[in-house]
Amino acid sequence: QSALTQPASVSGSPGQSITISCTGTSSDVGGYNYVSWYQQHPGKAPKLMIYDVSNRPSGVSNRFSGSKSGNTASLTISGLQAEDEADYYCSSYTSSSSLVFGGGTKLTVL
Amino acid sequence: QVQLQESGPGLVKPSETLSLTCAVSGYSISSGYYWGWIRQPPGKGLEWIGSIYHSGSTYYNPSLKSRVTISVDTSKNQFSLKLSSVTAADTAVYYCAEGYSSSWYWFDPWGQGTLVTVSS
Q: Are B8 and B114 in contact (CB under 8 A)?
């Protein structure tokens, strides 16, 4: 199974909104609403930010939102803050009854 | 609040078997939920290894399936990972995690991770 495709890096200024894309195929992202997003700060374990395409776990800021169209899922962060600077990974269930992650996107807050 | 802690050798020789354990506190594994293993090679992205239900049902990454065994020990409230015939490509930080919202499709919380290096 091939990794989902994410941009290597995105950047934005404080207060702005950014969107990170996650492109797969009809065998993963496009075929199921089982997409999740993780935030990982350097040297730390990942943290679940979005699950089930657009649901936020309790305690996650409503500045984080998720969506999906066709084979591409997206994570949007609004009102960008310095603490949002981190790596972000998407994940999807696949037709092989397995999970696949994206390659990761480094978010820089300018 | 559930907490997870990985443990095991930090150095494994090529061709040998990597063995890690994840101790769970704050929740009884026998009560339910899914549990998983995910790894991250240094400087690279995440790779799902596999997941297990408290009853023992397992799901494995097809690319690793022939070498992976995940098991659960409810008496010790822990679950384990065994990866056989390791090579340098298996060098990574290994994380254990809880399946979130009664699912094995996503994970939270995660353990702090443990670095395993494969080298002679």
A: yes
| Distances, alpha carbon A7 to alpha carbons A11, A100, B20, B57, B81, in Å | 11, 16, 33, 35, 32
**Of A86, A89, A77, whose CA–CA distance to A35 is shortest?**
A89
Between CA B45 and CA B48, with CA B46 as vertex, the angle to 5 degrees is 150
Return the SS3 of A8: coil
For residues A35 and A22, what is the distance between their CA atoms, to the nearest angstrom? 10
Each of the 110 residues of chain A gets a pLDDT tens digit; together they read 789 999 999 999 999 999 999 999 999 999 999 999 999 999 999 999 999 999 999 999 999 999 999 999 999 999 999 999 999 999 999 999 999 999 999 999 99
Which of the residues B4, B38, B39, B46 would you substitute to probe the A interface, choosing the one with the greatest number of A C-beta atoms within 10 Å? Answer: B46
Q: Which tokens go with B113?
A: 């991770």
Q: Please say whether the beta carbons of A7 and A20 come within 8 A.
A: yes
Give the residue from B66, B98, B104, B106 with the most A CB atoms within 10 Å of its CB, the best one to mutate: B106
- The answer to whether B113 faces chain A, any CB pair under 8 Å, is yes
- The answer to whether the CB atoms of A45 and B111 lie below 8 A apart is yes
Name the residue facing B100 among A1, A48, A98 (closest C-beta).
Answer: A48
Q: How far does B62 lie from chain A, in Å, by closest CA? A: 7
Handedness of CA B79, B84, B86, B90 (dihedral sign): negative
CA separation for the pair B89, B67 (Å, rounded):
13
Nearest Cβ partner for B48 among A34, A99, A104: A99
